[in-house]
């Protein structure tokens, strides 16, 4: 089992459709809004994206 990079994977939201869908379901929003929040945050960090999504509610 590979352990290299697992923390990075947990702490970021990628551009992959399943990642966007997961975050959208978790935050009760749409994948498009998650992608917009990611762009607005200027970062792929999960905490920054979630903070941007909270401000939009």
From TrEMBL:
Annotated spans, Disordered: 1-57
Compositional bias per record (Low complexity), positions renumbered to this chain: 37-46
Biased composition (Basic and acidic residues): 1-30, 47-57
Protein name, UniProt field: DUF3606 domain-containing protein
